[in-house]
Amino acid sequence: MSDILSQEEIDALLRGQQSPSQSSDDAILTDIEKDALGEIGNISMGTAATTLSTLLRNKVVITTPRVDITTMNELGKEYPIPFVAVEVKYTQGLEGVNLLILKEEDVKLITDLMMGGDGSNIADEISDLHLSAIGEAMNQMVGSSATSLSTMFDKNINISPPKAFVINFTDESPYDAFDSNEPLVRIAFSMEIGTLLKSEMMQLLPIDFAKELVNNLLGGAAKAPDNEPLQKQEVTQMPPIESEKPEIKQAVVNKTESEKVVKAQPVVFQQLNNEAPEVLQGSNMNLIMDIPLQVTVELGRTKKTVKDILELGTGSVIELDRLAGEPIDILVNGKLVARGEVIVIDENFGVRIIEMIDQTTAKNTK
Q: What percentage of the chain reaches a pLDDT higher than 90?
């Protein structure tokens, strides 16, 4: 008998060595649950990417979620360098906490873009300014993501303001809310910012919170009628999304059409009279006399970048887009109605109207 193992025997030994960890992962999350988490991540991060694109004035794409099980200790072996973590706590609709993990260099680039830079002005070390900036960016991103989850789960979902901090996975206790050996769900996303960045962002969730997300997604589907059996294949990962899921819209339309057929006909509107009415009758005028209106006197406006605003301090001068001596605008409920000049009445400022704005002309000039 030969002492050399055949390829089949080698493969069998390898499968035997890998089976404990694989079965352990499968015992924590099933394939359907992993697919569901990937689906949730794809939808929520797709919305968040749109928000970040507006904030950075660069196209942001966050896609391809990969779901697996890990621990803080394992992350310490994989990532010995410090990262930036953003803590997100859900306060309504869902109960739980998760961490968004980004590379320090990525945070510096995002901060520079938020300040109006081109992404090249990157500081050597992470400062409070970087943490504050990424906290605000994640606040807007996760806020829009929570809106998507609210629509998906059909209930209100709110978060507390995210908190950003530097995390080192090699520390004995990197994050108080997670034990070092506690199994965690890791969802890794690929992140691209224009032509400036191709990187990865991670999301870490406790197992209980991950299962709560899955139950909310699959639990809503479980309420379907008996004559419409659920199929496991319905929980699949989507490509990058830019709008609502068309299949969801179509399902709603099909269900509505099957339940009720409505007769429709074109609506015929009467021709509107372009001339404004002369005057409301006295009895009708009395009905609206006590309605409060907000009157605003606008001295002028200007536009500044985030960088300009952060540089403001005591003694700073802001130049407005209105010339000295030029009439100021008088607005009622945000609508321009007149122009005037500033006067002083006793110890208060006032305004004297010098021109009423013709509303017909104002509409035509918009």
A: 30
pLDDT in tens, 79-102: 989 999 999 999 999 989 999 999
pLDDT, residue 25, reads 56
- Which amino acid does the sequence have at 82? P
Nearest of 149, 131, 115, 136 to residue 46 by alpha carbon: 149
Sign of dihedral through CA atoms 281, 283, 285, 288? negative
pLDDT band at 313 (very low <50, low <70, confident <90, very high): confident
Summarised one tens digit per residue, pLDDT across range 249-305 is: 444 344 444 444 545 555 555 555 544 444 444 545 565 677 788 889 888 888 888
CATH class, range 282-364: mainly beta
Separation of alpha carbons 148 and 170, rounded Å: 34
**Distance from chain centroid for Cα 152:** 14
Residues facing 167 on adjacent strands: 83
Q: Hey, what are 252's tokens?
A: 């709603």
Are the C-beta atoms of 84 and 99 separated by less than 8 Å?
no
pLDDT in tens, 128-173: 889 999 999 999 898 888 888 888 888 999 998 999 999 999 888 8
Return residue ranges of the chain for CATH 2.30.330.10.
282-364
User: CB of 201 within 8 A of CB of 195?
Assistant: no
CATH class held by domain 7-250: alpha beta
